């Protein structure tokens, strides 16, 4: 069983790389952000709370994040392992996770702040079907329209310049120290997140001793 955490600043490609690892390794991809976005789309009570927090460029409380992670991990559908992204984001969350689950490796995607700004401010989202786009590398066929359902694309509430700067500050102040906690256990693998997606995936697999990505 393989149990991985993938970390990196917003826009570093955590979700994309996690899904690629999942494809042929039978891993369950657990994205805390996707769980919250589902609640927002379904207009649940939690979704309304998360929407207000995201619009302000703030992070969801530790209590709420831990509750969501505990509930998701409790499903126990990860027979061959899991890869979790968007968690942990601070020392408290890291301690909670390390106390509950053994981790084989932490994949850390390194990306300079300037590149983060370039990538994040180019992201677009379909509010109807949830499809993600990026105006740099993954543009829709029709400008401003989802290829799947035709709905008008929007900018995420947390992808504004102001919200991004707040998240960058929060990441450097709170999340980077989490890496130091994991480094003490010698499970952190630093990977350059700047190359093309496939190259980053191959680098991840090489450092973890996994089979090469077949595409």
Automatic annotation (TrEMBL):
Transmembrane residue ranges: none
Pfam families: ADK, ADK_lid
Stretches for region NMP: 31-60
Residues that hold ATP according to the record: 11-16, 123, 195
Superkingdom of the source species: Bacteria
Family annotation (SUPFAM superfamilies): P-loop containing nucleoside triphosphate hydrolases (SSF52540)
Keywords: ATP-binding, Cytoplasm, Kinase, Metal-binding, Nucleotide biosynthesis, Nucleotide-binding, Transferase, Zinc
The protein's annotated pathway: Purine metabolism; AMP biosynthesis via salvage pathway; AMP from ADP: step 1/1
Region described as LID: 122-159
Reactions performed catalytically: AMP + ATP = 2 ADP
Biological processes annotated in GO: AMP salvage
InterPro entries registered for this protein in UniProt: Adenyl_kin_sub, Adenylat/UMP-CMP_kin, Adenylat_kinase_CS, Adenylate_kinase_lid-dom, P-loop_NTPase
UniProt remark on domains: Consists of three domains, a large central CORE domain and two small peripheral domains, NMPbind and LID, which undergo movements during catalysis. The LID domain closes over the site of phosphoryl transfer upon ATP binding. Assembling and dissambling the active center during each catalytic cycle provides an effective means to prevent ATP hydrolysis. Some bacteria have evolved a zinc-coordinating structure that stabilizes the LID domain.
Entry's family note: Belongs to the adenylate kinase family.
Function: Catalyzes the reversible transfer of the terminal phosphate group between ATP and AMP. Plays an important role in cellular energy homeostasis and in adenine nucleotide metabolism.
Assembly mode: Monomer.
Identification of the protein by name: Adenylate kinase
């Amino acid at each position: 069983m393989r149990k991985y955490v993938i970390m990196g600043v917003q826009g570093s490609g955590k979700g994309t790389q996690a899904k690629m690892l999942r494809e042929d390794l039978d891993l369950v991809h657990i994205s805390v952000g996707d769980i919250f976005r589902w609640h927002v789309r379904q207009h649940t009570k939690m979704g309304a709370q998360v929407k207000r927090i995201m619009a302000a460029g703030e992070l969801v409380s530790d209590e709420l994040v831990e509750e969501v992670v505990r509930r998701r991990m409790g499903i126990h559908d990860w027979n061959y392992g899991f890869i979790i992204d968007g968690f942990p984001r601070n020392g408290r969350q890291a301690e909670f996770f390390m106390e509950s689950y053994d981790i084989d490796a932490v994949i850390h995607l390194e990306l300079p702040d300037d590149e983060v700004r370039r990538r994040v401010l180019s992201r677009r989202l379909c509010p109807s079907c949830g499809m993600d786009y990026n105006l740099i590398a993954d543009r829709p066929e029709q400008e401003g329209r989802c290829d799947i359902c035709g709905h008008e694309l929007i900018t995420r509430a947390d992808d504004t310049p102001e919200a991004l700067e707040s998240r960058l500050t929060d990441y450097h102040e709170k999340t980077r120290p989490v890496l130091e906690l994991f480094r003490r256990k010698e499970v952190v693998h630093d990977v350059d997140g700047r190359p093309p997606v496939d190259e980053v995936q191959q680098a991840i697999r090489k450092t973890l001793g996994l089979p090469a990505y077949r595409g």
